[in-house]
Amino acid sequence: MTDPDLSPAPSSGLWHGTTILTIRKDRKVVIAGDGQVSLGATVIKANAKKVRSIGRGDVIAGFAGATADAFTLFERLESKLEQYPGQLTRACVELAKDWRTDRYLRRLEAMMIVADKQVTLVLTGTGDVLEPEGGLMGIGSGGNFALAAAKALVDTSLSAEDIARKAMAIAAEICVYTNTKIVIEALESA
Q: How far apart are the first and last CA of the chain?
């Protein structure tokens, strides 16, 4: 069960990364990602780092989709953050404009979740810059499984990081393109 926009056709030869989850709770925002990179039905790498701190360390980001495409987007977002320091929403809107209109960027197959102390955003190649409802969002092949689990856990006493770990573990049990080698980045929220 994969999202056709994020998973390769078996013959496409693209390396893909999958499940990313974000949670904003109790003055903390986390982005979690699994470590699996797949080429069609084959696991190429089990410990990829698809979540990282970018900019001056005041923004965290995670990607789902084609790995090389995502790294291109990370670089482009970092340059937009240099242009618009402290303005994550503006930097993301400018990146989305480029992504949608630039002939090269339009072909990139990835999605991103980015967050700073104030806002969490999801970016897509169709020009969408969306703020997730309730501070929760999942993307990638296991994103909906992780999101459903996080929604069930968010009203408990668990911390944002603990919810992310549990939700990602549940997604890994269900989605064959998600593993349990979880990387989490966190920021104190405003």
A: 36
Residue type, 80: K
Known catalytic residue at 180: no
Please name which of 53, 52, 64, 19 lies closest in space to residue 165, comparing C-alpha atoms. 19
Residue 8, both tokens:
């390769």
Q: Which of 2, 18, 67, 72 is catalytic?
A: 18
Q: Which residue has the tokens 């969002």?
A: 137
CA-to-CA separations, 105 to 83, 102, 110, in angstroms, rounded:
19, 5, 10
Q: What is the pTM of this model?
A: 0.87
Which string of DSSP letters, residue by residue, matches 47-110?
Answer: ----EEEETTTTEEEEEEEEHHHHHHHHHHHHHHHHHSTT-HHHHHHHHHHHHHH-TTGGG--E
Q: Report pLDDT digits (tens) over 105-158.
A: 666 677 899 999 999 999 887 778 999 999 999 999 999 999 999 999 999 999
- Give Dmax (Cα) for the chain: 47
Beta bridge partners of 24: 29
Distance in angstroms (rounded) separating the CA atoms of residues 95 and 7: 22
